[in-house]
Amino acid sequence: MLGLTRDNSVILIHQDHRELILFPPVCQSRPYKGLLRSYASPETSGDVHAIVRSLVMDNEMGLAQPGHGNSWSRFSALMEFGAYNLSVAKLLESHFDAITIMDEAHFTPEAGIYAVWASKFGGKHLTGIRNGDRWQIRGDIAFASGIDAIDFAIVPVETDSGEYLFQIPRATITSIDKSQWNASGMELSDTAWVTVEALLHDSNRMGSADFYLNRRGFWPGGIGVAACWLGGATGIFENWVKTSSAKAYKEPHDQAQRGRAYSSLKACTIYLRYLATRIEDPKTSIAELRREALSFRHLVDQTCSDLVTQSLRAIGPILMVSDAEHLQRCMDLQIFTRQCHAEKDWATLSKEIDNLDFKGDWFE
Q: Taking Cα atoms as reference points, which of 127, 232, 140, 157 lies closest to residue 189?
């Protein structure tokens, strides 16, 4: 049976009187949207850095931790960041993911801007050798975003006793190569290939061996990235609607494509609200979170890809060739969504569901 609480949460009441929140209350205030509107659209990576630093340091922006009572407010904020600008969203999401990781590891963060650099693209990675209470850490990292904006990065380091996370200061980066990034999409995220050479005290190490991938917050973090993609897609859709609405003649094919796109965006948003409740439920296993995250990320990835194609088919190239901001949004979205590992993750999801009782899974 469905019920409604005083704060307008929709709940499912089981026969044993247990209550499960299906959809948390809609936030009546949108503080991040109002705050972001006070900033002009960034035109350079320096603008992105200034906006991120202003939001985090000057406005003391914080997000609810996933699973701590209000996951939906976190995801809706990440959507708003994406709708504003995906490079800003990329850096903010990475910073707040780092804060979450440190919270899970009971590690006290320093004042400043953080990033999580965990890519092992091309076999690049960091290694650590312990000598007493210090670690010699060296190696290379690809896709280090926000290289000129951050103060600290959270990085995985391979050691003889497993992989550990370390906090590394920006000063430990000995070389920066930005020549690998030749795309206009996500150009303002200031992404580089870097070399790290550091001698760090053991107090910079956090969590147990292999903590990063095995912690409960890993998959909610992946959902948060997709929330940024979804926000970026809504920004493109809103611009499309604005352009089409200004036309004197309402093209039926354009209307049909917009209706299709709206339905897909709405479905993704409803799914995200549902996932927020699953994350809040301590009975939801990490395996279930993994399946849900992979499913959601692929749904959003496909929706984003379809949206760009649908808008082009509906109104032609005019937005892409005459509206620089719209073009940038489309290029940013196409690059950012490639953090979805496509068929590789599909294969992982397939292995997961091979062992499921489908009847039980569909109707949980």
A: 232
Give all strands of the β-sheet with 2-4 in edge-to-edge order: 2-4, 10-13, 19-23
- With beta carbons less than 8 A apart as the criterion, state whether 361 and 353 touch: yes
Q: What percent of the chain has pLDDT over 70?
A: 88
Cα–Cα nearest to 70, from 171, 220, 294, 268: 220
Strand intervals (E) in 39-133: 114-116, 126-131
Distance, first Cα to last Cα, the chain: 14
Distance of CA 224 to the CA centre of its chain: 4
Structure tokens at 134: 């210090």
Is 59 within the bounds of a domain? yes
- Segments forming the whole domain that contains residue 203: 114-210
Going by C-alpha positions, the residue among 88, 157, 101, 165 that lies closest to residue 129 is 157
Q: For residues 133 and 48, state if they share a domain.
A: no
Kind and range of the H or E run holding 226: helix 218-245
Residues 160, 206, single domain; the answer is: yes
Q: Give, as one character, the DSSP assignment of residue 118.
A: -
From residue 264, how far is each of 113, 135, 242, 267, 298 by CA, in Å? 34, 49, 18, 5, 12
Q: Choose one of 178, 195, 210: the last residue of a domain.
A: 210
Q: Are 190 and 48 in contact (CB under 8 A)?
A: yes
Q: Write out pLDDT tens, residues 296-315.
A: 999 999 999 999 999 888 88
Q: What is the CATH number of the domain that holds 153?
A: 2.40.110.10
Q: What pLDDT, on the 0 to 100 scale, is given for residue 75? A: 96
d(CA 94, CA 221): 9
Angle between helices 71-84 and 218-245 (to 10 degrees): 50
Q: Report d(CA 89, CA 41) in Å as an integer.
A: 13
- What is the rounded average pLDDT for all residues in the chain? 88
